[in-house]
Amino acid sequence: MGYSDSTSPQYYRYRTLVALGIVTNRMTLWRWQRNQGFPAPVRLGPNTRAWIRSEVDTWLAERAAAREEATC
Q: Distances in Å between the alpha carbon of 25 and those of 2, 31, 40?
């Protein structure tokens, strides 16, 4: 991904979200953003959007915690 240091955010591109099994299609991603609080993408260029890794990881952790609370 090029330049990286501890102060710059790391990003997930759409292909990475798919490869990690987080999402399977763009419509689901859009619905999650709209209805379930999935983080909005940031624009890295005119045709490039990405999601800040820490925001996505936090969202996933919150969903897992909510599931744990619901099953207890």
A: 26, 10, 16
For 25, the enclosing helix (H) or strand (E) is none
Count the domains in the chain.
1
Is residue 67 very low, low, confident or very high in pLDDT (cuts 50, 70, 90)? confident
Q: What is the pLDDT of residues 25-53, one digit of tens each?
A: 999 999 999 999 999 999 999 999 999 99
User: Looking at residue 42, what is its pLDDT?
Assistant: 97
Bridge-based pairing state of the strands 11-12 and 48-52: antiparallel
Task: Let me know if residue 65 belongs to a domain.
Answer: yes
Segments forming the whole domain that contains residue 34:
11-71
